[in-house]
Each structure stands twice: as C-alpha cells, then as structure tokens.
C-alpha cells in the first residue's frame, strides 16, 4: 500500500504488468547468473517468453508517459542451490519504475525519500505488528553512503556484497557493474557503468538494481552483439530503438526482499504466502 501510494504521490503513472513478451530481460550474460533458462511458450506461431523483468517494456513506455511504475511479477528459474541464499524465489515482484530524462542522482533522491517515508509510515501504521514480531521498526537514515564496486572489491574482496552488507548498519549504494546491454556505459570513462544496487545492511544483501539506460539504436545493437545474444527475440525492441528511445533511468525494488529485511526473516519464503523457492516443490 505504501509503495503504490508513494509512486502515485510522486507523479508516476501505474501500468499493469505484462507476463509474456517477445523481448524480455536476458539477465546476462553474467558468469554468476543463477537462472537455468528463460521459459518460452509458442502461441499463434510466435515464441513468447515469460517476463524476467519489464526493463525493455519500461524503456518503450517511458517515452510517451514520462514517469511510470509497475508492480511487476517476474519469473526467474533460479538454480536449486539458490534456496540456501535466503533471498531467492523463482517468482517474485518488483516495484519497477522508470523516469524520462533522469540521472542516477535523481533515482537516489527519489528512493531515499521512499525509505525515509517508509520508516515513518510503519511507525504510524504498523507498530502493533512489529511489536507482535518482537522486533523494532528499522529507521532508514538517508542519504545512504555511495561506493563504487571497485572500492568495495578492494576493501572486502570477491565476497564484497555479503561482507560489506555485514559491516554496515544502514543500506548503501554500490555503483558501476558490468552487466546487461541496456545499462549505460559512462561516456566519459569506458568500462565504467552508470548503474547501481542498493545493498541492505546486516547481511541481507541486494534489495534494488537499476541504471541510467542506453537509448541509442547503434549502441544497443552493438552491445547485444557484444553479448553474443540471439538477435531475433530483440527484433521488436530494436525496432522501437530505431524509431527512437529516450534517455531515462530507473530501478526495481524487490518487494519480498524488502519485506524480509524489515521483518528480519531468515528466509525470503517466510514473507510469501504461496512460496516459490528454488529447489523446493510448489505447495499449491
Ligand atoms: P541476485 O544477484 O541477488 O541474484 P539480481 O542482481 O540477479 O539478484 P536483478 O536482476 O537486479 O537481480 O533484479 C532486480 C531486483 O529484483 C533485485 O535487486 C531484487 O530485489 C529482486 N530479485 C531479483 N531476483 C530475485 C529472486 N530470485 N528472488 C527475489 N527477489 C529477486
Ligand atoms: N528492474 C531492473 C532495472 O530497472 C532490471 C532488473 O530487473 O534487473 O534495472
Ligand atoms: Mg541486481
């Protein structure tokens, strides 16, 4: 309720999610990728994929509308070992948003307001529930610290996400990852990227990912080829890119990961009613 109201009050238009797409998030290439495969169905002679994330749809939609958000269900068939991470489901929901003409500082500002307001909202509306759980309401104290992934790697080593998360008592931003083609490379510094994650403290790990976006057809096309992705699923998206996408930035808040962090739950499945846990059967 808080999330939907926050985005409405901040001038965002809510879109309904799509669950099937021709062009969906490839989620890589990423050597650490934990997704087994992207499920595909054939219907009316076309191949459609289950939504991994709506990033490419967001880029198309933001052009006409300016500020959009979607409570977006995602299917990601994570490897069975992910059961042990405590933070992976194979079906989950992102509060996924995108803003035309925005830069990463605009996204940081918006999200820091979101978290500040969330602590206030919970103190006002949910103190009894937290009392019943026997835990306090986490007080988010933005602005959150900002680090590059290079700094974090130098200080904490390869396992930096977990180690840095354990070493902090407030969330922090981790900036600059080499990842999917749609995240913008810094035009001033090749090999650096204008993307970011928000990492929750106390060992809870990643809660949000987002970026400024590539919007020029030539760049997108070159990077899809760089990543050795099959071009055919991206044909429709590339058509939109050729017709002209616009500069934008956004992110997706993992709703179950947020609920897990707030409730200090050991496993993310404890905060979902119909749990979809990698390596475990589905109840219903
Ligand atoms: P991780 O590295 O933890 O596997 P990711 O970087 O692959 O996650 P993103 O593609 O960045 O995930 O997804 C955007 C957001 O959606 C994440 O920051 C997280 O909050 C949420 N999310 C991603 N995958 C899952 C999952 N399997 N279960 C629950 N939430 C998820
Ligand atoms: N929601 C993410 C973003 O806006 C994309 C993802 O799901 O990885 O960048
Ligand atoms: Mg991520």
What does this structure look like?
The chain has about 280 residues and is α+β, with helices and mostly antiparallel strands. It has a domain at about 1-145 and about 225-270: Bira Bifunctional Protein, Domain 2 (BirA Bifunctional Protein, domain 2, 2-Layer Sandwich). Helix content is about 35%, strand content about 20%. It contains 9 helices and 11 strands. The chain has helices at about 1-10, 55-65, 105-125, 125-135, 150-155, 160-165, 215-225, 235-245, 255-265; strands at about 15, 20, 40-45, 45-50, 65-75, 90-100, 145-150, 170-175, 195-200, 205-210, 250-255. Helix 5 (about 150-155) crosses helix 6. The longest helix is centred in the middle third of the chain and has 22 residues, at about 105-125. The protein starts with a helix and ends in a 21-residue tail after the last helix. Aspartic acid binds next to strand 6, strand 10 and strand 11. Adenosine-5'-triphosphate binds next to strand 6, strand 10, strand 11 and helix 9.
Order of helices and strands: HEEEEHEEHHEHHEEEHHEH
CATH architecture tag of the domain at 2-143 and 226-271: 2-Layer Sandwich
* Helicity, as a percent range: 25-40%
Label the structural class: alpha+beta
Sheet of most strands = 8 strands, mixed
Task: Reconstruct the topology from this structure.
Elements (H helix, E strand, L loop, with lengths): L1 H8 L3 E2 L5 E2 L18 E4 L2 E5 L4 H11 L1 E9 L15 E10 L3 H22 L1 H7 L11 E4 H8 L3 H8 L4 E4 L19 E6 L4 E8 L4 H10 L8 H10 L3 E7 H9 L21
Helix pairs in contact: 5-6, 7-8
Bound molecules: adenosine-5'-triphosphate, aspartic acid (ASP) and magnesium ion.
The site of aspartic acid has 11 residues, from β6, β10 and β11.
């Amino acid at each position: 309720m808080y999330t939907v109201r926050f985005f409405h009050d901040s001038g965002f238009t809510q879109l309904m999610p799509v669950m099937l797409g021709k062009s969906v998030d490839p989620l890589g290439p990423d050597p650490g990728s934990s997704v087994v495969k992207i499920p595909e169905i054939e219907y009316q002679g076309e191949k459609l994929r289950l939504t991994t994330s709506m990033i490419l749809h967001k880029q198309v939609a933001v052009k006409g509308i300016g500020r959009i958000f979607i409570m977006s269900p995602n299917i990601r068939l994570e490897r069975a070992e992910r059961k042990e991470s405590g933070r992976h489901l194979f079906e989950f929901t992102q509060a996924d948003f995108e803003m035309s003409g925005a830069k990463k500082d605009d996204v940081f500002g918006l999200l820091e307001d979101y978290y500040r307001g969330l602590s206030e909202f919970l103190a006002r509306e949910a103190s009894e529930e937290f009392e019943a759980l026997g835990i306090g309401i986490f007080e988010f104290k933005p602005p959150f610290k900002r680090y590059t992934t290079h700094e974090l790697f130098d200080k904490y080593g390869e396992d930096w996400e977990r180690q840095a998360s354990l070493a902090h008592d407030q969330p922090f931003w981790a900036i600059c990852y080499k990842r999917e083609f749609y995240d913008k490379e810094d035009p001033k510094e090749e090999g650096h990227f204008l993307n970011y994650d928000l990492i929750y403290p106390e060992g809870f790990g990643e809660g949000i990912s987002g970026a400024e976006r590539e919007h020029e057809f030539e760049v997108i096309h070159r990077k899809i080829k760089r990543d050795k992705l099959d071009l055919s699923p991206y044909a429709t998206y590339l058509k939109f890119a050729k017709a002209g996408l616009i500069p934008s930035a956004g992110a997706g808040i993992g709703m179950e990961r947020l609920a897990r962090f707030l409730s200090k739950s050991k496993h993310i499945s404890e905060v979902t009613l119909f749990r979809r846990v990698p390596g475990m059967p589905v109840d219903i």
